[in-house]
Amino acid sequence: GSDPASNNGASKTPSKSSLRLKRLGFVGFGGTLGGILGSVIASFAAQILNLSGLLILAAILLELSANLSVELGRIMQRHWEEQMKYISCGDLTSLLSAENLAGQQQAT
Which residues have CB under 8 Å from 22's CB, separation 6+? Predict the structure, then answer.
């Protein structure tokens, strides 16, 4: 625990909680920036487009975000399935190696 070499190794690799905090900082910054830029873009669009133009633009953006959300769900599903295959293959490999060890011990 108090070994200086172990402390140096731990300080060089960031912990999961610090990575999460960093990611949350980026998410917070993106949300703030999106709120500011979104209102600026909306005010300019309101000056250029009339009400029907704004409604059409909103419908297009909503459709785009729905399609992107569905595609992201598909990507996440494929990733999850690949992870489950990888984990199950690792479990099968460990079972196989355990059976081989048991067989070798019985043979001797």
Answer: 14
Q: What digits encode the pLDDT tens for the residues 39-51?
A: 999 899 889 998 8
Position 43, amino acid: S
CA atoms of 51 and 57, how far apart (whole Å): 10
Contact 54, 45 (CB under 8 A): yes
Alpha-carbon torsion (98, 100, 105, 106), positive or negative: positive
- The answer to whether the Cα torsion of 37, 41, 43, 44 is positive or negative is positive
Residues with Cβ < 8 Å from 21, sequence gap 6 or more?
Answer: none
Place of tokens 């001797």: 108
Q: For the whole model, what pTM was predicted?
A: 0.49
The answer to whether residues 37 and 49 touch, using CB atoms and an 8 Å cutoff, is no
The backbone torsions φ and ψ at residue 52, rounded to the nearest 5 degrees and listed phi first, read -65, -35
